[in-house]
Write a structure and sequence with these properties.
Layout lengths: L5 E2 L2 E7 L4 H12 L3 E5 L1 E2 L3 E2 L3 H13 L10 E2 L1 H9 L2 H7 L6 H20 L3 E3 L14 H13 L3 E3 L8 H10 L10 E2 L10 H23 L30 H4 L24
Parallel strand pairs: 2-3, 2-7, 4-6, 7-8
Antiparallel strand pairs: 1-2, 5-9
Helix pairs in contact: 1-2, 1-7, 3-5, 5-8, 6-8
């Protein structure tokens, strides 16, 4: 792969991959839309080890061949997950209205690790299987998506959510079926599955902003970018800039969800990130 995030003549997209239906469809969308896909898998300590994601990966590779790039070994993020989601868990319950936001902390850790991988490998697009029909989950709420997009943008990476327009599990299943992929979810089992709390947008955003310092420290330590965003005034831990732009991923999405009302005609242009007098990536 070239240093400009391209493999041959095709752009490369890193997809945070669990083996489940949603992240599998995200990979399918990019494979059929003119990109090559780098699947990223993780070890967080929250899941029970399973060979199922490897089965789904083999299925995708069989269907799309060289469009799926060789997959690196799963990225271990045990320490960061512990620091963000577990180390202060009792205090976090008190800080954030008694809500269980452990999986939101895990997702922030995965984004940080993914950003490091993208920076080291010259990949400029990061995506996952965030979907519209699971918007009640804290890590899939619009406010969390905005936050993750801002964090990635700070390092010159565009975060996309190509499955966000899907408003039902059936839509995802049928889209996979049309692409020649099985409709079973082949992701591992998380010990925290279905344990999340319903939290409002303000609580989700406050949690992410409070934990952001750990994610940024991890990125700076392991990617050595030399770039640090300016802290938001008045926030004790520092945070990235707000953005109201909200994209839904590549145009290929429309072929799967029939141009649902509310889908933008193109990926909206995001404002250039600012860095304390340093140039943007």
């Amino acid at each position: 792969m070239h240093g400009d995030g391209r493999s041959g003549d095709l752009p490369v997209v890193a997809v945070m991959f669990s083996g489940g239906r949603d992240s599998s469809l995200a990979a399918v969308i990019y494979c059929t839309g003119g990109s090559r896909v780098q699947l990223l898998r993780f070890m967080t300590g929250f899941g029970i080890p399973s060979p199922l994601p490897e089965i789904r990966e083999a299925e995708l590779r069989s269907r799309f061949e060289d469009t799926i790039l060789p997959t690196p070994a799963p990225i271990g993020v045990y320490g960061l997950v512990r620091r963000i989601a577990i180390a202060e868990i009792e205090d976090d319950f008190r800080r954030f209205d008694g809500k269980n936001l452990v999986l939101l902390g895990e997702k922030l850790s995965l984004h940080a690790a993914s950003i490091v991988y993208c920076l080291k490998n010259g990949i400029e697009i990061l995506a996952d299987g965030t979907s519209g029909y699971q918007a009640d989950m804290p890590e899939q709420r619009d406010t969390a998506i905005d936050f993750f997009r801002e964090l990635a943008q700070r390092y010159g990476i565009r975060y996309e959510t190509p499955v966000k327009a899907a408003i039902s599990d059936d839509e995802v299943k049928y889209a996979l079926l049309e692409a020649g992929i099985s409709t079973k979810s082949l992701e591992g089992i998380s010990m925290f599955a279905d344990s999340f709390s319903m939290a409002n947008d303000d609580t989700v955003r406050a949690y992410l902003e409070f934990k952001e310092v750990h994610a940024v420290s991890y990125i700076e330590r392991f990617a050595a970018t030399g770039l640090r965003g300016e802290p938001r005034l008045g926030h004790p831990r520092g945070a990235c800039y707000r953005s109201t732009a909200r994209g839904w991923g590549p145009l290929a999405l429309c072929s799967f969800f029939s141009g649902r009302a509310g889908m933008p005609d193109r990926e909206p242009a995001l404002p250039a990130p600012r860095f304390s007098g340093r140039p943007a990536v």
